[in-house]
Specification:
There is one protein chain. This protein is of the alpha+beta class. It has three domains: 117 residues, Jelly Rolls, CATH 2.60.120; 139 residues, no CATH class; 148 residues, 2-Layer Sandwich (Heat Shock Protein 90), CATH 3.30.565. It has twelve helices and 13 strands. Strands 1, 2, 3, 4, 5 and 6 form a six-stranded antiparallel β-sheet that branches. The chain has a five-stranded mixed β-sheet with strand order 8-10-11-13-12, with helices on one face. The radius of gyration is 34 Å and the shape is elongated.
């Protein structure tokens, strides 16, 4: 086994100003290890009990996220870590959050945490230096964590957008095919119509009747049962007149026609003209409905794009901007709409009508709504309920996001804002969403609280109406 001397530690930045007797004390209370390139030093979930000092070589750290090892950081002999890693004095780390591997040939000393108190008595200034390195390490980890969280959020957002876009896009393709068929059919039906004694006055009366039904449909909707009853009545009546296509009755019933409407139309036409007018009218009103469906599908895509632009704060600066929280939350609900529909979750909005706009870094604040609503969806079974309540006073606005899920166990509720803490299974979440939420809210000089019991979990966010300083 190699004999380690104080001179072997003097090139290590964290130890460079320690006297020889302190270096020797560290050697006497540590164990020496050697690793080959790629060897595992620390494994995810194992107890974190030792501080290590790299005499030679480097250590690569990979955070364990969603069942994968994600590269985070390299420990080496520089101003960032000083050549020291693992558990540090006063660290709250209990278990390793990832995996550490040797980069190249690695030679290290390992000191168990039971010696930390004696080390502090030996050299308190050295402990303070180690705390400084630990703080810098935490800062770098937090920055990397935020970057990974943003990438993860972007991936989830992209998946949601693709899901939301797919339905109206597929509808538009189907509508286009059906409209082409209807337009082709219109040539034959119009030719048949022209073979009758139909006059311009007849066409005008048909136009007025269809227009009237368009207006009636926008003002009053029939229930499914009412429509089925009228459809049967129309089908029976048309069969009495020699028109045996029940699909025609379905179209007329859906568009608000009644038997009385067709009786009135029939009174002004001879039998041949009436039999030709009915399929022509049905093709007309069905084409109008198809065009309305096309408008709805394209509007849905347009609204989704608008929600995306607002959510990610496109076309605006990165400075504080006045924002409408109700609109921001609505946009978030639009982007998460596919998840809400998958579980048939009801969203109740108890919005105060006079909520003032507040200054915010809007794209960051939107991460808060996305994380909290997404977590509520995850917590709920099918047919659950999410309630969003907004209120305000002279100084602050308050937003509460409440779900009626099983609740957060009392033994872990105090830990939910800790980095990397999660109750989700591997692959279901990063465990850092609420840490990000907490930091964003605090960065806006706000406050977030959670109260939970079975059947009701509430996250409450309080944000100031006026910001008195530049936050970033």
């Amino acid at each position: 086994m190699r004999i380690i001397k104080p001179d072997d530690l003097k090139h290590i930045l964290a130890l460079s100003d320690l006297p020889d007797e302190h270096l020797q004390w560290i050697i006497d209370h540590s164990e020496y290890y050697e690793y080959s390139d790629g060897d595992l030093l620390a494994k995810y979930g194992e107890p974190a009990e030792v501080m290590w000092i790299a005499l030679e070589g480097k250590v690569a750290f990979y955070m364990y996220i969603n069942g994968r090892q994600v590269y985070y950081f390299t420990f080496e002999n520089n101003h960032v870590t000083g050549g020291i890693g693992g558990l540090m004095p006063y660290s709250r780390m209990k278990t390793y959050p990832g995996y550490s591997y040797a980069l190249g040939e690695l030679k290290i000393l390992k000191m168990h945490k039971r010696h930390f108190a004696a080390l502090e008595q030996l050299n308190p200034d050295f402990i303070q230096k180690l705390i400084g390195y630990m703080t810098e390490r935490a800062r770098i980890f937090a920055t990397t964590q935020l970057q990974h969280e943003k990438v993860n959020a972007l991936g989830n957002l992209a998946a949601g957008i693709a899901h939301e876009m797919n339905n109206p896009a597929a509808a538009i393709r189907g509508i286009s095919d059906e409209l082409n068929k209807r337009l082709s059919r219109n040539y034959d039906l119009t030719r048949n119509l022209l073979e009758t004694r139909l006059t311009a006055e007849h066409i005008e009366s048909i136009h007025l009747l269809v227009s009237k039904k368009d207006d009636d449909m926008s003002a009053q909707k029939r229930t499914a049962l009412e429509r089925m009853e009228i459809e049967d009545e129309l089908g029976d009546w048309l069969e009495d007149k020699g028109i045996l296509n029940r699909e025609l009755a379905e179209s007329f019933a859906e568009h608000g026609f009644s038997v009385d409407d067709l009786v009135e139309l029939h009174a002004g036409l001879d039998e041949d003209a009436f039999k030709r007018v009915i399929p022509w009218m049905e093709n007309l009103i069905s084409s109008k409905k198809i065009i309305k469906d096309l408008e709805d599908a394209s509007s849905r895509i347009s609204n989704l794009v608008s929600s995306i632009k607002s959510h990610v704060h496109m076309d605006r600066t990165n400075d504080l901007q006045s924002t409408n929280l109700h609109k921001d939350i609505e946009n978030t609900l639009t982007l998460l709409g596919f998840k809400l529909r998958e579980k048939n979750i009801e969203v109740k909005k108890e919005f105060t009508p006079d909520l003032p706009e507040i200054p915010a870094y809007v794209s960051e604040l939107n991460q808060v709504w996305t994380n909290l609503i997404d977590n509520a969806i995850f917590a709920l079974e099918k047919n659950g309920t999410i309630t969003i309540v907004t209120t305000h006073d002279e100084k602050n606005v308050n937003i509460s996001i409440i779900d009626n899920g099983p609740g957060i166990p009392h033994n872990i509720i105090s830990r939910i804002f800790e980095p990397f803490f999660t109750t989700k299974k591997v692959g279901e979440g990063t465990g850092i969403g609420l840490d990000i939420v907490n930091r964003i809210v605090k960065n806006h000089n706000g406050e977030i609280k959670v109260n939970s019991e079975p059947g009701r979990t509430e996250f409450s966010i309080c944000l100031p109406i006026v910001q008195h300083e530049n936050l970033h």
